[in-house]
Amino acid sequence: MNKLLVVEDEVITSDLLKRYFEIVGYEVINALTGTEALQKALEHMPKVIILDIMLPDMDGFEVCRKLRSNDRTNHIPIIFLTQKDDRRDRLDGLELGADDYITKPFDVEELRLRVHNILDRTGGIPLVDARTSLPNMELIKERLPELISKPDSVFIDVKIAQYDQFGAQYGPVAANQVIRSTAKLIADLLHEIDPNRSFVGHPRDDHFLIAIPRDIMNRIETELPERFAKQIVRFYDYPDQQRGKMKMDEELVPFMSAQLMRVKAEALKVLIQGAKVVNKAKGKPNQTPAGAEITTGTKAQESKSEALPSPVLTDTPTRPEKSPDDSQAISSQPDNAASSPGTEPPSA
């Protein structure tokens, strides 16, 4: 798991960053002073340091200078986080070896992307999806033992229904925007409801896996499909919005929807063992696995058997394709679903 060291003396901001980055799959260490930052950098060896310039004991420039003079920490990327927006301050920080600079008030999504871009540049095994900066399959598998060990954890697979048809009609750039928007919607909702006990990962194109405590399960299963339905309309052009469906050749296709399916912890343990599910549903990209109850915000369907969609269990991530319009545009090729034991209906 990628470790972040957040050096920020404002407790509210420090806690906010810790909760937010933990939701999207990072391990976060907090430091309130420069002295504490130097100690924790040596102790934990983080992948990135987010460093406030205004600290009570020494300024961030001095912390950066000391980190850069130590052979053990001189390679760790540093992002300066400060209220100062003077060109001289930015140059001073960059001259000391800082890798980036962001001023308060800041957009936490922008900060997350800057952290991801730095990690991407420094190489190593990617642990987050390039489009969403959410934990990919490798990091999900790493976090699962801890998540499964919590007795009150509930796991939900969120699938974007009709995503393949949308991508085929509107193109990979628009489809990629849907993925990013959905990732932000889920992360924002979890942060709003319970930032300390929630987790969201992005194992495959149109699937997200979330882990939440059981006591907030009903609210997530109600609000997530509703918010998705309100948001997704804006991705369609005006004629489609007017008719309430997407016209694809001569066929009218329903708008995309968020389908939620609860997944049993026993089924997810297969991931830890590195198992794969063989897709046996070729030619059926929109097949609903038998035994799953799909929540769309208004209706649910039940079955006595149990199933788990292969995109959750497969550990072969879909790689984004490059596009002249979007450097992280995804492939518009459909990813067929398959069935496997391991789900339970959301209404249980």
3D architecture notes:
The chain is an alpha/beta fold and 348 residues long. The chain has 2 domains: 3-121, Response regulator (Rossmann fold); 137-344, Alpha-Beta Plaits (2-Layer Sandwich), CATH 3.30.70. Helix content is 38%, strand content 18%. The protein is built from 12 helices and 12 strands. Strands 2-1-3-4-5 form a 5-stranded parallel sheet, sandwiched between helices.
Could you provide a short overview of the structure?
It contains 12 helices and 12 strands. It is α/β, with parallel strands linked by helices. Helix 2 (34-44) packs parallel to helix 3, helix 7 (163-170) crosses helix 8 and helix 8 runs antiparallel to helix 9.
- Total number of strands: 12
Number of helices: 12
Number of domains: 2
What's the CATH architecture name of the largest domain? 2-Layer Sandwich
The mean pLDDT is 76
How far the N terminus sits from the C terminus, by CA atoms, comes to 33 Å
Largest sheet: 5 strands, parallel
- Read across the widest sheet, the strand sequence of neighbours is 2-1-3-4-5
Order of SSEs, N→C?
Answer: EHEHEHEHEHHEHHEEHHEEEHHE
CATH class type of the largest domain: Alpha Beta
Pairing-aware structural class of the strands and helices? alpha/beta
Tell me, briefly, the overall form.
Answer: globular
CATH fold call of the largest domain? Alpha-Beta Plaits
The fraction of residues in strands falls at 15-25%
Roughly how much helix do the residues carry, as a percent range?
25-40%
Integer-rounded radius of gyration: 22 Å
Low-confidence parts lasting 5 or more residues at pLDDT below 50? Answer: 275-348
